[in-house]
Design a protein that fits this description.
The chain has 252 residues and is an alpha+beta fold. The chain folds into two domains: 128 residues, Alpha-Beta Plaits, CATH 3.30.70; 105 residues, 2-Layer Sandwich (Alpha-Beta Plaits), CATH 3.30.70.100. It is built from seven helices and eight strands. An eight-stranded antiparallel barrel has the order 1-3-2-8-5-7-6-4, surrounded by four helices. A hairpin with a 5-residue loop joins β2 and β3. α2 crosses α3. The longest helix is centred in the N-terminal third of the chain and has 21 residues.
């Protein structure tokens, strides 16, 4: 895992963005890695991450290099089995943190464990996301999470992305913010693609447990459609396909 793990810290189900209202807040960057892992061996990968990587991440947070980090387990969804991320508002510091992490994980005393991690989770997909809208302030991005997260990864028309973002901010955001106030969800976030694969946008919302998030997913689409049917339909035209995941936030 050594160099590979932290070279891949450039992509969350999971993660978070500053509040829509805080227009002057700094932009939060999310570097996340989505792992393809061997079924039946992921518990060992979790143990290695907690023992070897978490102390390094905590030190980077304490030093002010990153704002937060996380490790999430696949509960439902497609082929990704684990999600790792780090977040911050200073890209230069995040790059420095990433380089320092690579060096530490290549050190002789932990390299054996890192290599074992690589055999369990041999492939990955990297993304860098930038915050665009959400219910959290920048200081809580990637740091304050609930036990379970649902992420919807959208494939969108590049030419229509700005329009889709506008629909989210003007039509969807008031509804989602009200749902946070009503405690139907703990928080929500909208992330835009900066680097990575085919997914161009991510809608993330956090909650207390699997049942509550699945129940919420069932009421969200009708609520958005009822608010502005034409704009909701236009959003679906721009972002015409998606993949859903539910993550258990194991380290946060």
């Amino acid at each position: 895992m050594g160099a590979r793990l932290l070279r891949t810290l450039a992509s969350a189900a999971l993660l978070t963005v500053p509040a829509v209202e805080a227009q002057d807040a700094p932009t939060t960057i999310i570097m996340a890695t989505y792992y393809h892992c061997t079924q039946g061996k992921t518990d060992r990968a979790d143990a290695i991450y907690k023992e070897r990587v978490v102390p390094i991440m905590k030190a980077q947070v304490a030093a002010g290099q990153i704002a937060g980090y996380g490790w999430a387990k696949h509960w439902e969804g497609a082929e990704w089995r684990r999600l790792e991320y780090m977040s911050g508002t200073d890209l230069d510091k995040m790059v420095d943190a990433r380089e320092a992490l690579i060096k530490k994980m290549e050190a002789a005393d932990i390299k054996k464990d890192m290599d074992e991690f690589d055999t369990i989770c041999p492939n990955h997909d990297d993304y860098i996301w930038a915050s665009s809208a959400g219910s959290q302030v920048a200081g809580d991005v990637g740091r304050v999470r609930s036990p379970v997260a649902m992420s919807t990864y959208f494939v969108c028309s590049v030419a229509g992305e700005d329009e889709a973002d506008s629909i989210v901010k003007t039509v969807f955001a008031p509804i989602l913010n009200q749902h946070v106030k009503d405690k139907k969800i703990a928080s929500w976030n909208w992330l835009e693609h900066r680097l990575g694969g085919k997914y161009r946008r991510v809608l993330v919302f956090d909650g207390a447990d699997h049942k509550s998030l699945l129940k919420y997913w069932g009421i969200l689409a009708p609520a958005l459609d009822a608010a502005q049917p034409n704009l909701s339909r236009r959003f679906n035209e721009i972002c015409s396909s998606h993949t859903d995941y539910i993550w258990d936030m194991d380290v946060n």
